[in-house]
Amino acid sequence: MDLQQRINAFVKLGEFIGQFSREGFRKNDNVTTNALFFDGFKHQISLAHEHNAWFTKENIAFALEGWSNSLTNANLKKWLETYNLKDVSPKNVAIIMAGNIPLVGFHDFLSVLISGHQVIVKQSSNDKHLLPYLAKYLEHVEPEFKGKIIFIEDKLSQFDAVIATGSNNTARYFEHYFKGKPSIIRKNRNSVAILTGKESEVDLKALSEDIFRYYGLGCRSVSKLFVPKNYNFDGFFKGLYEWHPIINQHKYANNYDYNKAVYLMSEYELLENGFFMIKEDKSYGSPIATIFYEYYDSLETLKTLLAENEENIQCVVSKGVTTDSIAFGQTQRPQLSDYADNVDTIAFLTKI
Q1: Global pTM value
Q2: How far apart are CA 190 and CA 157, in angstroms?
Q3: Which 8-state DSSP code applies to residue 213?
Q4: H helix intervals, the chain
Q5: What average pLDDT does this structure show over 319-334?
Q6: Are 7 and 73 in contact (CB under 8 A)?
Q7: Which biological process annotations from GO are given for this protein (predicted)?
Q8: CA-closest candidate to residue 207, choices 278, 302, 259
Q9: Which domains does the chain have, with CATH numbers?
Q10: What span, in angstroms and rounded, lies between the C-alpha atoms of 318 and 192?
Q11: Which of 42, 164, 267, 315 could staple 174 via S-S, CB 3.0–4.6 A?
């Protein structure tokens, strides 16, 4: 199977999942083998939500929209054009996936297969319905993928390299267990936003997407604000308000009530608007329904602080404050070349 064959298969997969959007699930009879797979995938989406209440139909559809937009012939070719994939010697690459947001491990899955390797997938129990079904579709439209995709639940064995995503605690286990194997091991990271007080209402509304999408459970979700001294949070809260229906999701509401009670009993100072809280805190990872904030004296000292803590930070969101800033509202719309932890997965896979 050459690279173009692999690209063609993922393009067909992109066309398939493009039928499942937030606007509705609309069957397109022109999609390859749709009669076999469309209704079954609708069922898998329902099962995914029943198994994990954080995986709402809207959030699953949002994730699928992103992948459908990425999996085009033009996007895949542009992404891969700078790599030499002709001399890749196929290896068995294991992926240990997180389960915090729908299809969070898909980029690793895509990277392994598109670069010409075989993949061994160990999924999180929180996200186990969607990817195996999409893998079956992939095998159906490109039979040469059969035998190159394996899902396991037991202990990993017979692999040549590994990509593992987990917490800071599990990372220590991974580093010990996979010692001697080529590996990418990812730890906890969070995303931050820098506000200057000059942001427009449109900017702050866009930022609300970075905060609330996937209930803030993603590493690309903004969990920390850096604001100037005497920052007025009125505009910030106004920008968030369109997300107020989120409090109707019972798991989110339970977290909101619990965390609010903890803060009040601990006599922490906080600001809240009935569905969301902000608290001054130097930590980067905030609980659900909460965002931490920290004051800065100058942007230059803030840049130094961010550089010193880069291992804790996935994305920096701002209006051009830093050279690597992501625009407001774009953290959950990564491009194919936006690698987790800034570690180039394809480059790694070409060298194993």
Answers
A1: 0.96
A2: 31
A3: G
A4: 3-17, 34-51, 57-70, 73-80, 106-114, 130-141, 168-177, 201-212, 234-240, 250-265, 299-308, 345-351
A5: 96
A6: yes
A7: bioluminescence
A8: 278
A9: 3-188 (3.40.605.10), 190-317 (3.40.309.10)
A10: 9
A11: 164
